[in-house]
Amino acid sequence: MALEPLTAAQRLHATFDPGTMTPLFAQQTGGDPLSFPGYSDKLAAQQEKTGMREAVMAAQGDICGVRAVVCVLDGGFFMGSMGTAVGEMITRAIEYARDQRLPLIIFSASGGARMQEGILSLMQMAKTSAAIADFGARGGLYISVLTHPTTGGVAASFASLGDIMLAEPDALIGFAGPRVIEQTIGQRLPEGFQRSEFQQAHGFVDQIVPREQMKETLGKLLRLHGYGVKRT
Fold first, then answer.
1. What is the DSSP string of 126-171?
2. Engineering a disulfide at 8: which of 57, 105, 113, 199 sits with its beta carbon 3.0 to 4.6 angstroms away?
3. Stated pTM of the model
């Protein structure tokens, strides 16, 4: 069974060492670029319910003593869907990590691209992917952490591009959901299809990490890749 979801704020506080976290960038909203019926009201309701302006938070801080940049998608805000504001925040965080020569960690939890923003939302897939490619070309380390669920345009873009791919147990990971696939191909899917354990068995996920071990695992990976190590 998939773990209970964490808010973006809860995830950040669980990941960083106490007293080291600094938020990055003022949260923004993409507004209603297509004047989609009812979208402005729904966006306002989500903001009031969650206390966030959008579905992502970004911060820098120490993880087991190692400085890193972390982004977290919040599944409680429009199912963590990616619109223009989310894409912009993630891209800025990637560029900040690149410029500061810090490792990057992104926790994904998303229903995909936000349909109310149409093609502008889909464009964020290319935008974030291009930023990740540039980050990697300059030697940056990107650890992608897949939580339940990671689907749609997020799964098909930056969430799948990690140098290291981690996942929480039993998280649903894939582009289309199992019901959609079964209806399309007219066949029953294997037991546990698209879950973390299935993805690891088929080479997409490097390691499944229990939530209580996530911070320690991230700290070890960062140090193994030379971050936080003093060089003489």
1. HHHHHHHHHHHHTT--EEEEEEEEEEHHHHTTGGG--SEEEE-TT-
2. 57
3. 0.93
The closest alpha carbon to 108, from 160, 50, 177, 59, belongs to: 160
The 8-class DSSP code of residue 74 comes to -
Question: What are the tokens at 223?
Answer: 């140090």
The pairing of beta strand 104-110 with beta strand 164-167: unpaired
Cα–Cα distance, 72 to 136 (Å, whole number) = 20
Q: Is 108 helix (H, G, I), strand (E, B) or coil?
A: strand
Q: What is the pLDDT of residues 87-107, one digit of tens each?
A: 999 999 999 999 999 999 999
pLDDT of 231 over the 60 cut: no
Tokens encoding 137: 């070309």
- Provide long-range contacts, Cβ within 8 A and 24+ apart, for 98-101: 98/134, 98/135, 98/138, 98/140, 100/60, 100/69, 101/140
